[in-house]
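I am writing to request your help with a piece of structural work I have in hand. The matter concerns a single protein, recorded as an amino acid sequence and a row of backbone structure tokens. Could you please explain, in whatever detail you think fit, how the structure tokens follow from the sequence? Thank you for your consideration; the sequence and its tokens are set out here:
>
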Amino acid sequence: MTVNGMTSPRRERADAARNRVKILTAAAEIVTTHGVEGLSMAEVAAAAGVGVGTLYRRFGDRSGLAYALIDEREREFQAAFIEGPPPLGPGVEAPARIRAFLHALTDRTVEQLDLLLMAETAAPLARFGGAYDGYHAHLSMLIAQARPGADAYVLADALLAPLAAPLLAHRLRGRGVTAERVKAGLDGLLAGFTT
């Protein structure tokens, strides 16, 4: 639909909205009960009472379903760093916001690590775009404020790299690294270019 030259998003049909809720509820229950490994499109469709084709048309594949499960928590996180209270939100100096953001992103990633791991490894570049671009733009802006003249674009990638789900899962589960140690390491990186 076009209004005043602007295209407005299509509204979701009521039956499609109900199916979406049923599908995501069923998928979340399966993940809670059986873990991400138990999340199959056929089982989710059966549990939701919809056809498998509906699931594939709506979400594409398991990684699309994982991103949909991640979406609500992601929206909350983005609202917190864009407009929430300081230090994560506006109202403090850039270095304090960067630190708060990195710590919150570490916690957010650990919270849904298995879903993020599945989503980020679905394709070679699956991690990038969407939320990553938002994180990158936010960090780039804050880095430019904290250290004018620095290559904020590349530094943002350097700060986000340790929080890739595959690396974080490997470090936390395979090497005994804790989330607190990851945060301390990020603080060390941050200190290197904000002091």
Summary: The chain has two domains: 8-60, 70-194. The longest strand covers residues 2-3. Residues 62-83 form the longest helix (22 residues). Residues 19 and 50 are 7 Å apart (CA to CA).
